[in-house]
Structure formats: structure tokens, C-alpha cells
Design goal:
Abhydrolase_dom, hydrolase activity, hydrolase, Alpha/beta hydrolase domain-containing protein, about 525 residues, 17 helices, de novo design (two linked rop proteins), single chain, about 40% helix, alpha/beta
Length: about 525
């Protein structure tokens, strides 16, 4: 596999500047605080076209060669070699929404930076690079005007994308000239992709890995992809959400020494993490998000990213030491229909504590406009149901702790993420008899956002504790009513106003970006506005 010519890092102005001379979807997180840097590079080369419409287990063939291209990669990496764990997560950028989406970075950025992974986003497809109106080239002619993955408009079917992606991997693994990873040496390169991008990788695995897959040490197909060939010599991991099960039943395959297939009950194809990561960046970069009225409230609160984090670490041990990941039970189906309990929650599958000890309907199913079919649904249980299930706080916390412990023991969740689950359960209001009103739920959404946006600020524990106090005060005031509720609202207003002041101070000190600060302030103000 030839290594392309690499140019960069490309100089950038501040994200959000009017010139748009900065990386598309430049992260809002303070990477410097955790010893990371974000850099963008341009790649130039010539790519082959392949005939990939071949039977499973058959290699593709070259149709034509010498097609010039120029694309870009975005690199988020440790600055010091001592922090680097040796593994590059090379994400095929998803373009379903009409623009490049770093779906897997947004899902797992906390684990990526705490564990020393390099994440690289690779722009390989026409829609992401040259699509109208939000392809890179159209979004910023100033920065991306020279990009072209269609060989001057002569190849518009994405048939060059496979070679472009493989050459980008080669530039990471065996660079010549400019080194996109700086002083870091990539010991392992994992090809990863979500949804549509998993579908592209599925073709890459089946038709092209024996031809151009040398830079790849393992694959992760996330919430997408079909049956994969069984004669390759590198590990393949497939992880899907409950949303994906009906269409994936036909693609279920038994585990082998080089293949794993996990399904996460209660999780959706596109979830809250995607919203938290993309919504503020789209707003900053002047792009209208895709929205639609869904039949049911969207986005289950089942953190599938915890399972994704565990998958990455399993893949490292699989490649480095030959240690196979555990198998997992499938979600229970009859035909293609997911089987459910009396509350509407799915049976079987990987069952995270947030799902197995239920406080809501968390489903992968939904209907409605736009992408609602991918968003799943979330409907909190009525207080009478919660009181029946958990008459005491301990009656909720103990089974959560036990299930979190079991998922770590079984290898589906890392201990760091299980610790978060236990912390939230211990400080929850479930089992206290106190109801959670719409205002309380707005505060719970603020709590989730606080963990996400404050992770690199160094103040996440302090500020999330304030939101937890506000949630408890709201619930206790709701239960007591009268003067007690009025006093509780006074406490909440003071607490959240103090929270807003803290966020603004973090921004002033450069520990929090304007984007992150805006999201947190807006969330706090939304909670305050919902109070009587």
C-alpha cells in the first residue's frame, strides 16, 4: 500500500471564526488539559477503483488506477509518547447526515484520552468532502477548496474511498515525510466505523482486506455492517444497539477465535451522546441540525459508550496478547421482532445496570420524521411504579451495584465506567419516595451534560455535585409541597446560579471552551426557567 503525501499540520484560526479557516467540527474539549493536541493534515495520492460486488469470501479486483485525490484527516493524539498506549483508532467518518461526523470520538472521548489512544478521523467519501451544502469543500472554500475525492468529477460513486482510506491508514502506520502522529509510533491500527461507515468497512473487510488491508490490525463495526468472511487473520468485533437488531438478525454469526458479536439491550442507534457532541458544534459552525417530531420521546439513557470503551481495550489485548474477548448473549427475538418484558424493555443482550434495574422504558424503537427511527425512546416510569419496584433507596442501589459489578466481571464494562454508574445510583432520588418533575428531569439532563462538557476542565466533580444537590432539593420539595417546596426552589436557584458563575469562571480561565460553557449555561437556565 503506497503512503500518500502528507501536508500539515494545517494552520488554523480559532474555531468559530468567521473565516471558517479551522477544522470542521474541531472539538470543544480542552485537550491540552489532558495532554492531547488536535491537528489536521491534507493527504495527496492516486487511488484505485475496485469491483467490490463479489460473493462473500471472494476478493475484489482493480477496475482502474491512477485516480488523483486530495483529502484530509483530523488527528487527536497525546502530545507525549509516554502517554500513548500504542493504538490508533482510525474512524471512517460517517456522512449519513450530509457531512463528516466523528461519531465514535463523540461517544468515547473520555476513555480515549484517559487511556492514551490516538483517534483519527478520515474523510474518504464524496458527500463528506464535496457534498452540498455541508461537505468540507462547500462549508469552507478557504480551507478545503483544494480537496477532491472524485478525481476531478470523473469518479463520483465513492469507489475510490476504499483506497483513500487504506492509504490514510498507511500514512499513520508507516509515514514518509510528514508524520501525522508526530513523535508517536503506531504499534496497532484499528479500523473503526459507525452505521453507514460500518457498512463501508464491511465491504472493505469482505472484498478488499486481502488486497489493501495490510495497515489494519483489527476492525470494529459499530451499529452497522453485514455478514463478514471467516478466513481473515485479524480480529473483527461487531457491536450493535437494540435499534439495529431487527435488520441484523439475518447477519448474526457465531463467535470464533477472530470474531465477536455483541448486542446492547435498551440502547439506540443514535443517542444522547451524538446530540451532546454534534449539536453545539453544528451551531458553532453554522449548520442546521436534522430534527423531526418523533412518536415517542427519544434517546434512551443506556450508556452504550461504556460497552464501546470495553471493546477497545478487549481489541488491544486480542491483537497484542491473543486474549479473546468474552462472548455475549443476543437480544431475544422471535423472527426479527425484539421480545420485551411487561414494561416494554427488551429481553436478553448485554444488560447494563441502567437498564437491568429499570426506572424507565429504554427502547431502541421509535418512529417519526427525519431520523427518529434511529433515536430509540425514553419514557420514565410513573412514580407509583417506582415506589412499587423500589420502596427504599437501598432497594434500588444494591441491585444497581450488583449489576454494575457483574458487567465488569463479565467484561462488558470497565471499572471506571461502573464507578460512575454506582456513584449516580448512590446519589439518585430513586427509592426515596420523592417524585421527579419536569424541572427535576431538566436538571438530570444538565447533570449528564456536565459530565460530558466538564470532563477535561478539572472541575467536573465539584460542579456535578452541585447539580446533584439541585436534583435532590427539587424532588424533596416536590414531595413536601407548600413552604418546604418554596424553600427548596430558593436553594435550587442559588445552587444553579452559583453553578453558572463557576462555568463562566472556568471559561475565563481558558479551562472550558465557549461552546461547552454555552451548553452548560443554557442547561442551567432551562432548569431555572422550568421552575414555578
Amino acid at each position: 500500500m503506497p503512503s500518500p503525501t502528507v501536508t500539515g499540520p494545517v494552520p488554523s484560526q480559532a474555531p468559530g471564526s468567521a473565516s471558517r479557516d479551522y477544522p470542521w467540527m474541531a472539538t470543544m474539549h480542552n485537550l491540552a488539559a489532558v495532554g492531547y493536541v488536535e491537528e489536521e493534515f491534507f493527504l495527496d495520492g492516486t487511488a484505485n477503483r475496485y469491483n467490490t460486488a463479489v460473493p462473500l469470501g471472494t476478493n475484489a479486483s482493480v477496475v482502474s488506477s491512477g485516480h488523483p485525490y486530495r483529502t484530509r484527516i483530523i488527528v487527536r493524539r497525546p502530545i507525549s509518547p509516554w502517554k500513548f498506549n500504542g493504538t490508533v483508532l482510525a474512524e471512517w467518518q460517517n456522512v449519513t447526515a450530509g457531512y463528516d461526523l466523528d461519531a465514535m470520538w463523540g461517544a468515547s472521548f473520555e476513555h480515549i484520552v484517559r487511556s492514551g489512544y490516538v483517534w483519527v478521523g478520515i474523510s474518504a467519501q464524496r458527500v463528506g468532502v464535496q457534498g452540498t451544502p455541508n461537505g468540507l469543500k462547500n462549508w469552507s472554500t478557504t480551507r478545503y477548496g483544494s480537496l477532491d475525492v472524485t478525481a476531478g468529477g470523473t469518479v463520483v460513486d465513492d469507489s475510490l474511498s476504499y483506497d483513500i482510506y487504506a492509504q490514510a491508514l498507511q500514512a499513520l502506520r508507516q509515514p514518509t515525510g510528514v508524520r501525522p502522529l508526530g513523535k508517536l509510533e503506531a504499534r496497532r491500527v484499528f479500523a473503526i466505523g459507525a452505521s453507514q461507515s460500518a457498512g463501508r468497512l464491511h465491504v472493505f473487510i469482505n472484498a478488499l482486506h486481502p488486497l489493501i488491508g495490510d495497515p489494519v490490525d483489527a476492525y470494529l463495526l459499530y451499529i452497522g455492517g453485514g455478514l463478514v468472511r471467516s478466513d481473515l487473520t485479524v480480529p473483527i468485533f461487531k457491536l450493535i444497539s437494540e435499534t439495529d437488531v431487527p435488520v441484523q438478525v439475518a447477519a448474526r454469526q457465531p463467535d470464533t477465535p477472530l470474531f465477536r458479536f455483541w448486542e446492547v439491550a435498551g440502547a439506540s442507534h443514535s443517542g444522547r451522546r451524538t446530540v451532546l457532541n454534534t449539536r453545539p458544534l453544528l451551531a458553532r459552525d453554522g449548520v442546521a441540525p436534522t430534527v423531526g417530531d418523533c412518536a415517542r420521546p427519544p434517546y434512551p439513557r443506556v450508556p452504550i459508550q461504556y460497552v464501546t470503551n470495553a471493546v477497545y481495550d478487549h481489541m488491544v489485548r486480542w491483537v497484542r496478547e491473543g486474549v479473546q474477548p468474552p462472548s455475549a448473549p443476543p437480544i431475544t427475538t422471535v423472527g426479527t421482532a425484539v421480545q420485551r418484558d411487561a414494561y416494554g424493555n427488551a429481553l436478553g443482550g448485554i444488560r447494563l445496570a441502567e437498564f437491568a434495574v429499570p426506572t424507565a422504558l429504554n427502547s431502541g424503537a421509535n418512529t417519526g420524521a427525519a431520523f427518529c427511527i434511529l433515536y430509540g425512546s425514553y419514557i420514565p416510569f410513573e412514580q407509583s411504579v417506582l415506589d412499587q419496584l423500589y420502596p427504599t433507596h437501598g432497594g434500588y442501589v444494591v441491585p444497581v451495584f450488583n449489576q454494575a459489578h457483574d458487567t465488569v466481571r463479565e467484561g462488558y464494562v470497565l471499572w471506571q465506567d461502573a464507578l460512575r454508574t454506582k456513584h449516580l445510583a448512590a446519589h439518585s432520588i430513586v427509592g426515596s419516595g420523592a417524585p421527579c418533575s419536569a424541572t427535576c428531569r431538566a436538571a438530570q439532563d444538565l447533570l449528564e451534560a456536565s459530565y460530558f462538557y466538564l470532563y477535561t476542565s478539572g472541575a467536573d466533580d465539584e460542579l456535578t455535585h452541585k447539580v446533584i444537590l439541585a436534583i435532590k432539593a427539587l424532588a424533596r420539595g416536590e414531595a413536601a409541597g407548600g413552604q418546604a417546596q418554596a424553600f427548596a426552589h430558593k436553594v435550587v436557584r442559588h445552587t444553579l446560579n452559583d453553578y453558572v458563575d463557576d462555568v463562566q469562571r472556568l471559561k475565563a480561565k481558558g479551562r472550558l471552551s465557549q461552546v461547552s460553557a454555552n451548553e452548560l449555561v443554557n442547561g442551567a437556565n432551562a432548569t431555572l426557567a422550568a421552575m414555578p
